[in-house]
Design goal:
Shape: globular
Structural class: mainly alpha
Radius of gyration: 22 Å
Largest sheet: none
Number of helices: 17
Oligomer: single chain
Length: 422
């Protein structure tokens, strides 16, 4: 493909992505679902995605770093406390029982190996903030519920990223894993990574405060995140946790007690300006756009794979998707028995898979020797779950919105009838 054609496609995709965002505002169909479908259509129309597969690993690493940067921005300490206080059982119940259910379903029904089933369990327990955050913010639900959903999606994403990366370090041999040793290693790496992330936030605050007024420095914070992500790998700490805590410290609200304590201790903590936040959101938007379009192209790129095999993978994806939503349904029923039907539907909808699931399954396939056929099976099955879970979430959100509007309409009509009484 000629360079001019590639540039043309890049420009068109960015414009179409903005149209999808506007379409989401009126229909509540997530733009990420439309971007995946766009990627599938491009592939079916003859666009050759193979040149982009070469840069896939770099794209996944950049996406992972930016996922965690965005996660830290949304994972405020006060939101975290509020969510843990009100929804601990639902969040942890959904996460833990999804892992267990997917493990058993994949090992005993889909006949996958134990380690592949366990990895899939952790991947499927993640919830996509890229889907949940825009949907929850646009819905007529309480601010508390919105913040709880944002925390849940962000927290599960981060936990899955950490655990999958940690388990991949053991390869396919889990016989040597002891829970006490694993938890000890987890605690050491977590404390070490979190400390480095917080120290990096303080260090960058001093540096950025000095260079902020220089021209063309707005991108330097993202550059520092990439440096931090790379350095964390070299010093054998958890890059995801390091970047997460860096982002959480940097984005502490100006009226927070932590900032006041830091000020008294003569620690400078920068706060991003509105123009800087807008710029970072645009960068994240573009990365997200091309990642999901790329995902759609890769999802439909089935060269040298028999059609029957692809159909079989998607049947497995349907089964896994059913298990995910069934476990969520049970957890809602058990932990929140008195919740209204509308709220229950909203909570049920908010378990779609996305960016982290796609990145993690590729990371697992590339770093553990499980063979090409098995890698293709796991990757295509995961992609199928991503597509189906976003579709089911969209349908449930549509149903919830219709019910909420009907409920509001009934309340208004009753109020009007009361006003007309003599």
């Amino acid at each position: 493909m000629a360079p001019a054609d590639i540039i043309l496609y890049i420009g068109l995709i960015i414009f179409i992505s903005h149209l999808f965002t506007s379409f989401f505002e009126s229909t509540r169909i997530p733009d990420v679902l439309l971007l995946i479908i766009l990627g599938i259509l491009l592939n079916l129309l003859g666009f050759d995605p193979t040149p982009f597969f070469i840069s896939a690993d770099i794209l996944f690493e950049i996406a992972l770093a930016l996922i965690l940067f965005e996660a830290g921005i949304h994972l405020k300490f006060n939101y975290l406390y509020s969510a843990i206080k009100s929804s601990t059982l639902l969040i942890l119940g959904t996460y833990c029982f999804t892992i267990i259910a997917i493990l058993f379903f994949c090992q005993y029904l889909l006949m996958l190996s134990f380690h592949s089933s366990l990895i899939l369990g952790f991947i499927m327990a993640s919830i996509s903030p890229a889907v949940v955050i825009p949907i929850s913010k646009s819905m007529k639900i309480s601010e508390r519920m919105k913040s709880n959903l944002i925390v849940e999606s962000t927290m599960t994403d981060v936990l899955s990223i950490f655990f999958v990366i940690a388990l991949v370090g053991y390869g396919s041999n889990y016989n040597n894993i002891y829970m006490s040793t694993f938890l000890k290693d987890f605690s050491i790496v977590f404390i070490k990574s979190a400390s480095i992330g917080m120290l990096a936030a303080i260090l960058w605050s001093y540096i950025f405060d000095v260079i902020r007024n220089l021209p063309n420095t707005i991108f330097t914070s993202l550059a520092f995140i990439f440096i931090l992500f790379g350095v964390a790998h070299y010093i054998h700490t958890s890059a995801p946790i390091t970047v997460l805590f860096f982002s959480m410290i940097i984005s502490i609200p100006s009226n927070s007690k932590i900032r006041k304590i830091a000020k008294k201790a003569n620690f400078t903590l920068i706060e991003f300006t509105q123009s800087e936040k807008t710029f970072y959101e645009e960068i994240l938007f573009i990365i997200k756009t091309f990642f999901f379009v790329f995902l759609g192209m890769k999802m439909s790129y089935i060269e040298n794979i028999p059609l029957f095999t692809v159909i079989l993978f998607y049947i497995k994806a349907i089964g896994i998707t059913f298990v995910i939503f069934f476990i969520r349904f049970l957890c809602i029923k058990i932990t929140k028995p008195k919740i209204s039907k509308n709220k229950a539907i909203v909570l049920l909808a908010m378990v779609p898979k996305g960016l982290a699931a796609a990145v993690l399954i590729s990371f697992y396939a590339n770093n553990v020797n499980i063979g090409l056929a098995k890698s293709q099976e796991l990757i295509l099955t995961t992609y199928g779950v991503i597509l189906l879970s976003i579709f089911v979430s969209s349908a449930l959100v549509f149903i919830a919105e219709k019910r909420i509007k009907k409920e509001e309409s009934d309340i208004d009509s009753k109020a009007t009838n009361l006003d007309t009484l003599p």
